[in-house]
Amino acid sequence: MSVPYRILERKRAGLPLGEEEIRAAVGGAADGSWSDAQLGAFLMAAAIHGLDEAETRTLTLAMLESGERWRLAADVPFLCDKHSTGGVGDKASLVVGPLLASCGLPIVMLAGRGLGHTGGTIDKLETIPGLRLELGRAACLDLLARTHFAIGAATAEIAPADRRLYALRDSTATVDSIPLIVGSILSKKLATGAAGIVFDVKTGNGAFFAAPDSARELARRLVETAISLGTPARALLTDMSQPLGRWAGHAAEVEEALGCLAGEGPADLAELAVALAVEVSALVGRPLERPALAAALAAGAGRELFLRWAELQGADPAWVRRPAFSLAPVERSIMAPRAGVLARVDTRQLGLLLAEAGGGRLVPGAGIDPGVSLHYLSRLGHPVAAGEELARLHLRRDDDALVARFAACFEVAPEANAAQAPELILDRVGERS
Predict the structure, then answer these.
(1) What is the pLDDT of residue 115?
(2) Which of 84, 184, 187, 281 is catalytic?
């Protein structure tokens, strides 16, 4: 009887796996000695029966140790990191990073691409002409020395076991397993070796976990596992029942982030960026207060730092001198069908429709039209008049049926029946919670 068979038999029966057994599965993913069928069975058994805290920690550490570990904080004191579980219009990483760096705190983020209803940070940054995004350790250290800010795509040497397991999770219906999510996220994030990390865990109908209890459990497991592996961590539970900011769409989101870094961004994006910066700066022992961060945003230093970073990463000098983005040319408005209050937005469906229109990817490897976007012009709980514009679409082609499906995502209710709009920051998980 083979080693994989015995391990799969135990987990299928709901028994906890020991360290050597979990390391055997992760090693098999990294070196190819386990087949896709064996790894798929392992993932399914883990998703059905769960992994306890000890198993999750072992899985994460084994995946982390399957590749390079940069341990950057040994060379860069007070190094911060930030991760979001993703959502529609979530461009907070593009604000938090330069904001912290402009205040003298170094930050590194290895980011990813989007799939389904969420947009990826790397996809957004690729709208900048000429920008190079693959980062190795030496390049990270150079950027941190020059700008205090490094963001990019992980090399193939970071957590190679996760690269294979992540692809299999998508085809084995195991994407929503919290222990597997924790292992995947942390094996990449902890590889950089920051001094502290803050997680932005979304909840609401546009989040990966819509139910607050599930999102809170993910936040808890992320924080506790990171701490158990030696990295101080906290998490904010934040609302994703409507798009973050005013824009969703890759080029438009980068432009909105630059505006926010110049003190001209939407209030919710600025509020979230400042809150995340407060948390992670306290974690690494160099606390920044909200007034100082708000003043830094207003002064525009973060925008200048972002543009300097982009130039160092190969961005077209003409773009750096005058950043500009082109949106898709077909504009269609979504109007309120009646007077009342904007009561609900199907945020997940908005993201999926943007992807269907070309502004995202529904399958791995698909191309993206960065100019396809949605301008979100109202907010939940706000009164609207009949015929008032709720949102404006920028599409590559005119399509009445597609526009009607976008419009169906917005619900206007009589003011007396409207529920109160949710708070942006719902909870904190970690040391100060």
Answers:
(1) 67
(2) 184
